[in-house]
Amino acid sequence: MRNVFLFIRRHFNFLFFLVLQIIALSFLFRFNKFHQAAFLNVSTEITGRINERYNNIEYYFQLKKTNESLVQENARLRQQLKENYEAPDSLTRLIHDTIRVDSTSIIKYKIMEAKVVGNTTSLQDNYLTIHRGFDQGVRPNMGVTGPQGIVGSVVNVSKNFATVQSMLHYQFKYVAKLKHSNETGTIGWDGLSPLYVIMKGIPKSAKVEKGDTVLTTQLTSTFPANLMIGTVAEIVPDNSSSFYTLKVRAATNFGNIEYVYVIDNLQYEEQKMLEDSTRKKIQ
Amino acid sequence: MSELLKNTIRFILFILVQVFILFKMPPLHRFVTPYLYYLYILWLPFSLSRMSLTFVGFFFGLCLDYFTKTPGLHAAACTLIAYVRPFVISVLISQEGADKNYISPSIVSMGWAPYATYVIVLTLLHHTYLVLLEWLNFGSVMYFIGKVFASTAVSLLLVLLTEMLFFRKQKFRTNTI
């Protein structure tokens, strides 16, 4: 027993170092797996406040670009107004009412705006901090989209802030489809450039061309269908595989993003419960 | 200004510079992530005991980690260099007794060549461990080697600039032993 104490006293520094290493590594691996870590809620709140201070200054330098992207988005939305379309001649043909929101349908997605206060693009695992948290209705796993295209999904929420796993993160995986052929594949990031993401899993039997639009699908519950992700910039030649590897130019410019929309799927719980119970039934 | 106050201000400044300037820079290349924050650990006083040095390293890294949302990554690397630092110093200046006559490691207290060796060794160690942890769930061997050396080169350049811009004058304390 005495020897044990002597050993501890003699190598105390090394043991202390080992303990700290183990703490650090357990934080890291637990966070990589479940996006949970000790003191994360408190620290998100504090770093969020500091980020907000910085953003108040930085925001002025981005005003012009932010304004431009918002105006473009407004123009796109105005384009979709009912008044822009000539009503079909309903005297000669039977027409179905195709307006999506009416008294009989149920709203599925709720959209909340949020200001981006923290953002990185130069690391291998990039997160955004947004100024809207648990008290304002943000929950983990909600989708986040920008004025031009999708941005990522919420991984962590504190009282007034939330962290968003950006599309530029090595763990980001999302199902997407090509607008032209409706083929679905997965979107991920290879860590090379913040301008491009990689799409995999499109069979070579499908026709793909440069400039094809990549959209979200209704297959996952995070985003509504047909939101912009990007456009195909390059078809990477790979003869060994029967699937395409596509380099997709992201629609979102992650460098100067200032406002995002958090998408709340109101039927998420119901869908997830059903899927989980099905899985249990099979086992 | 007392050493404690000076180091506390440095602590905050290094983290803010790393988070709001170096991480905000548009990425030059995927191999290059400019790191400067760990210089704080290299600048800590000689008189700090090994245990508190290791702990300061851990805490400093963790603070940065909560900004980048990678809890534990920088903390692990900082703990390692803070633990190894006394060994490197004792090898490099064992004969001169500079660690008693000066407050903290610098060009003045250690001399050009030993100080450069000290910085290079710890930078390389820090980057290797950091990229290794990143590499475990991401990337290839080429990525690992390329990133370690490219980031080390950029970091050394930044350290050199910082040493030139903020030259630390150090008094020779004769009657302290």
From TrEMBL, chain A:
Gene name, Swiss-Prot/TrEMBL:
mreC
Pfam families from the xrefs?
MreC
Q: Which GO terms describe its biological process?
A: regulation of cell shape
Q: Does the keyword Transmembrane helix apply?
A: yes
User: Which organism's genome codes for this protein?
Assistant: Puia dinghuensis
User: What residues does the Rod shape-determining protein MreC beta-barrel core domain cover?
Assistant: 116-263
Q: What is this protein called?
A: Cell shape-determining protein MreC
Domain of life assignment: Bacteria
**Keyword Plastid (UniProt):** no
Task: State the similarity comment.
Answer: Belongs to the MreC family.
Q: What does UniProt give as GO cellular component?
A: plasma membrane
TM helices/strands, residue ranges? 12-31
Coiled-coil annotation reads 60-87
TrEMBL record, chain B:
Transmembrane intervals: 6-23, 35-60, 72-94, 148-167
Sorted keywords for this record are: Membrane, Transmembrane, Transmembrane helix
Domain of life per record: Bacteria
Name this protein carries in UniProt: Rod shape-determining protein MreD
